[in-house]
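Incident review: delayed structure delivery

Summary: a single-chain prediction request sat in the queue longer than the usual turnaround. Root cause was a stuck worker, restarted by the on-call engineer. No data loss occurred. The affected request and its eventual output are reproduced below so the record is complete for anyone auditing the incident later.

Affected input:
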Amino acid sequence: MPQKSTSMLKALTIILLPFITFVLGWNTAINNPKYKAELKKIINENEEQESLLSKLTNKKDYKVTKFDLTVVDEVYELIKRDYVYEDALKDPEVSYGLARGLISSLEDPYSEFMTPQENKNFQDSLGGVLEGIGAELTMREGLLTVVSPIKNSPASKAGLMPEDIILEINGETTEGVSLEKAVSKIRGKKGTDVTLTIFRRNAEEIKLTITRDTIKIDSVTWEMKEGKIAYISLNQFGENTTKEFLNIINEILLEEANGLILDLRFNGGGFLDGAVDIVSAFIADGEVVTIKKRNGVGKETLSVSGDVKLEKIPLVVLINKGSASASEIVAGAVQDYERGIVVGEQSFGKGTVQEVMPLKDGSSVRITIAKWFTPNGINISETGIKPDQEVEMTIDDYLEERDPQLDAAVEYLTK
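Output delivered after worker restart:
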């Protein structure tokens, strides 16, 4: 051990040992009735020391067994009194921090508190416009995990993939960082770069430098492939998705397509009602999804019935690990009713419903309010939708722009 370290250790020992001895001796003394009586007689002369005696001899264990702001008040006062940076507490950040703490105590990766700016960014993303790299993220077992890169986004073009774990953002660890904080670090102005250190299964650590851009999300796009097979790419369930989808259906009907591929890969979800609207184009009558709130109270079943424009057309639904939430509702209904086949890889597994609840100052809370179940009564949380025909898409397939999953769908409909 270096001389300086040895000296320091000796100094600490000298300082600490008498202190420890004093504490042990004091503890023995104050638990002796004789000493308690004499000590109390002396200390009664001084009110401040009386308080000290009370703390030392009569303090009872205080346990928080219900929601209690006492601990919060104590911590707040302690910071105000003793924290070295006296101006560190700023409003409204303190209130926002407390709100985040309440939500994080749920240990639910899909519930979060959003400041006014974060809430605006979230609403903009549902509207189809945002700036950043274009990826949906979540927390899984405390790890910052990619749910899905948005199609044709900077993240997708750079090679970010579902289930990638982000270890570092610009060289700073993500360990212990909240989802909101991580997202704010990754977002940024168009034209600027962010470097992500990625852990990917069966691969070494990967560093991706991604140039941020304005992300314009087209909810739905389509094209007619060879053999008059209509290919619809549904990228999210946003505000305009249903309207755009219905317009595309009319075009497909005019073209008299022989088959239809609904691509839900890398679709991280969105509005639940939009998922029901999509299913209504393929299934004539029946339950689509059942929503169950806590303790079974407030059970609600969303069904479809009536005019079905694409009831007869052969159908393939494409999913992968980036298909989540509303995408899984659609795939689950198609699979349970055997309306078509599901091709690709097992989906993400998000079988819960969140509701965004606005707060007075423009902030909001997105909170899990229910679980959802497929028509056959299955909750797909953690397990996802297992495709009828499993087709893997490798890293090399992505990099070389091959699409064996789409090829398998076309082959199925052609035959």
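Verification: The mean pLDDT is 83.
Action items: add queue-age alerting; document worker restart procedure.
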